[in-house]
Amino acid sequence: MHLLEPRPQPSRKMRWLAPVYAIGLTLISGALLFTALHKNPFHALYMFFIQPLTTGYGWSELLVKASPQILIAQGLAVGFRARVYNIGAEGQLIVGAIFGGGVAIMTDGSSAAWILPVMVLAGAIGGALWGALAAWLKTQFNAEETLTTLMLTYIASLLLAWLVNGPWRDPAGQNFPQSIMFGDAASFPVLLAGSRVNASLFITLAVVALFQLLISKSFLAYQIEVAGQAPAAARYAGFSQKKAIWLGLCLSGLTAGLAGVGEVAGPVGQLNLNISPGYGFSAIIVAWLGRLHPLGMVLSGLLMALIYLGGEAAQVSLQLPAAMTGLFQGMLLFFLLAADAFINNRFRRRKPATRFA
Amino acid sequence: MTVAQLIPVFAAAIGAATPLMLAGLGELVAERTGVLNLGVEGMMLIGAIAGFACAVDSGLGAWAGLGAGAVAGALASLLFAVPALSLAANQPACGLALTIFGVGFSAFVGQGYVSDSLPGMQPWAVPWLSALPGAGPVLFRQAPVVYAALLLFGAVWWVLARTRTGLILRAVGESPESAHAIGYPVLLIRYGAVMFGGAMAGLGGAYLSTVYTPLWAQNMTAGRGWIAIALVVFASWKPGRLLIGAFLFGGVTILQFHAQTLGWTVPVQLLAALPYLATVVVLVVISRDKRLLQLNLPASLGKGFLPD
């Protein structure tokens, strides 16, 4: 049962190899799973991971699904670096969507050019507020952010359910729990005709560039990291752990809120109960798999988008439920965490017999 | 509002409290040995679908489902235990992975069971006691599994507080290094506690799908696993307080179904948010006194242990 012993020094190589091992092990487990479901594993893996990318539309959908996850992961990574575990980005996404969508609903009928920018701003504020709530509960009352962010996610989704069932329900929507469809002034313009790729992609790209700059150039990023890894040392050096908590939760809330607006003013086009297939949760995996590095998370975000895409494709081509996506996500995270254990540790080696005379 | 109107509300609260009590107690035991498993929600869902599938397919009824749920929950907990204990990986992250996996796995397996239903479990009126005014219909006309859960709760409480086994469990949680030095198999004990936690969470999930609702719906646990984790903090790692917390939250959970009887006109979605709101409030109240929290917190909670 005792498998590991500490390495004399953490392995840098393993830090970047761990995601590769995790992906490999996930694919092997996937093949075994498909075999158990009486599917030809090679055919099934091809249909899941490659076939969706054989068309231009498939690639455009990959971008549509990757963009929000990459965006959320950027913010989450700031918190994770400071060991602030925000696992309620899904809730911050929803509140961002409510704030942004609220602007769209209240300005319905107008074609003013300021509507979309205001929606983006409102979404960012909404998400950041929801994150800030958890930061306040943590810094003021010491309440664990893992639990509070998650509880706030349930509250956010019920808030959304109330809005689309009540005050914001589309009067012409035959009682479906959904708002009106947003007009052109309240939607991101589509970039590629015939696809769902829209201008919200630029927000993601800008945020990636900004965070890349932040971690490579700023002293602030360093402070955050120290505050997370060695709170006592950070206090001694005058860096505040409270600041790290506020920053971590507000920034991740902000990016999640932006992602929420991107969805409702993009592919979804309205407020309803299916504005996110769990991007707030999958972004956690994106962040870890991408090693909390802005560019690494672009790659892992694309992979996670492919898993979503594959899950949808498997429904049609393999008659398997879309829940396959969740299975693959869970396996990937397990294998990644297991592989990560080998950064600081290695397999136990048989110790030479020592004798005391 | 009359007393007669309140009796079904209180009786339902006890039914709603049972899964929280079971899952919370399992997590409490695991945390007492120093292991923080955030996978309760996932284990409950896996237990719920395993229990439901077993009860439907075998035709043996709710009891068989409950057994299957417990076994499935214990097996699922191994997915957490291997990386988190044997590899000393990040415990909160491993628990989260288990929850993500459990949500996906249960939805995957449950696809074929969405339209099935089960008869549930008939309440059993305890002779003589159930005739007591007030307390009788509230406490003694429950499904038999509720009494069984309470007995189980009492047994675990006794083991934890009064026996040598309980002492060893707590010692491992306070200082795995010392326990290891004395010669106790720390990892083995933690594996046992985590699997016990998994079995209890699975049992709680199976109770929901075979007795309480009784049907299968995707994500049917609706955050009860997370509330159970919060209840352990609320209880300051003490079983007695966990029991009180579970009943309180059971009550809050069912308010939305009785709002009409009680004459409330608040939208149902906002009432449904009450348990989550209450969880936040409770966490705030309990956690604000850092020193008191530290006093009860198992000292090694969440920290991996690699023996040399």
Automatic annotation (TrEMBL), chain A:
GO cellular component, one term: plasma membrane
Membrane topology label: Multi-pass membrane protein
Entry keyword ATP-binding: no
GO molecular function: transmembrane transporter activity
Database matches in Pfam families: BPD_transp_2
Recorded superkingdom: Bacteria
Subcellular location field: Cell membrane
Signal peptide positions (record): none
Transmembrane annotation, as ranges: 16-37, 84-106, 112-137, 149-168, 188-215, 244-265, 271-290, 297-316, 322-343
Keyword Nuclease on entry: no
Keywords per UniProt: Cell membrane, Membrane, Sugar transport, Transmembrane, Transmembrane helix, Transport
Record protein name field: Simple sugar transport system permease protein
Organism of origin: Silvimonas terrae
Taxonomic placement: Bacteria, Pseudomonadati, Pseudomonadota, Betaproteobacteria, Neisseriales
From TrEMBL, chain B:
Single GO term (MF): transmembrane transporter activity
One Pfam family, short name: BPD_transp_2
InterPro entries: ABC_transp_permease
Keyword Membrane: yes
Highest taxon, organism lineage: Bacteria
A GO cellular component entry from the record: plasma membrane
Subcellular location as annotated: Cell membrane
Membrane topology: Multi-pass membrane protein
Keyword Ribosomal protein: no
Protein name per Swiss-Prot or TrEMBL: Simple sugar transport system permease protein
Biological source species: Silvimonas terrae
Organism lineage string: Bacteria, Pseudomonadati, Pseudomonadota, Betaproteobacteria, Neisseriales
